[in-house]
């Protein structure tokens, strides 16, 4: 990236980096670590023309969350927990990653972009 004149690194944290749920201590701690690693990398890589940001998705329809999305009642309950009442798709997260990789996001460096359809906007840690 340095030889190319810069670039963009995009780390994957989680909405649990800022709003953990009980029982997922290791997961929340690791994602909080990714968020801080992102800031530290941004400070070190910025002078080299490399931006470093992180995404913090919530519950996305992926194999990791099959237990939620594979159960109609559970999926409906999780959808109701989002500000707009909808579940997230991997395509939505992909759109954000494309934006962060582009020059359109050149003013972002060291940011954790929480992209969880509002889940953490009005929830309390459990």
UniProtKB/TrEMBL annotation:
Statement: the UniProt record of this protein carries the keyword Oxidoreductase: yes
InterPro entries in UniProt: NAD(P)-bd_dom_sf, Sc_DH/Rdtase_CS, SDR_DHRS6-like, SDR_fam
Keywords, alphabetical: Oxidoreductase
Molecular-function GO term, any one: oxidoreductase activity
Pfam families hit by this protein: adh_short_C2
PANTHER family: DIHYDROANTICAPSIN 7-DEHYDROGENASE (PTHR43477:SF1)
Family indicated by similarity: Belongs to the short-chain dehydrogenases/reductases (SDR) family.
This protein's name: Unannotated protein
Organism expressing this protein natively: freshwater metagenome
């Amino acid at each position: 990236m340095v030889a190319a004149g810069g670039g963009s690194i995009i780390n994957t944290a989680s909405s649990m980096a800022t709003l953990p749920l009980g029982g997922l201590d290791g997961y929340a701690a690791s994602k909080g670590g990714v968020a801080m690693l992102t800031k530290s990398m941004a400070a070190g890589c910025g002078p080299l023309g490399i931006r470093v940001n992180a995404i913090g998705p919530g519950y996305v329809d992926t194999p990791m969350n099959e237990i939620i999305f594979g159960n109609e009642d559970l999926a409906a309950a999780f959808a109701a927990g989002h500000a707009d009442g909808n579940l997230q798709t991997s395509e939505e997260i992909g759109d954000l990653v494309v934006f962060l990789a582009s020059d359109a996001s050149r003013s972002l460096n060291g940011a954790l972009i929480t992209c969880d359809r509002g889940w953490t906007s009005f929830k309390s840690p459990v």
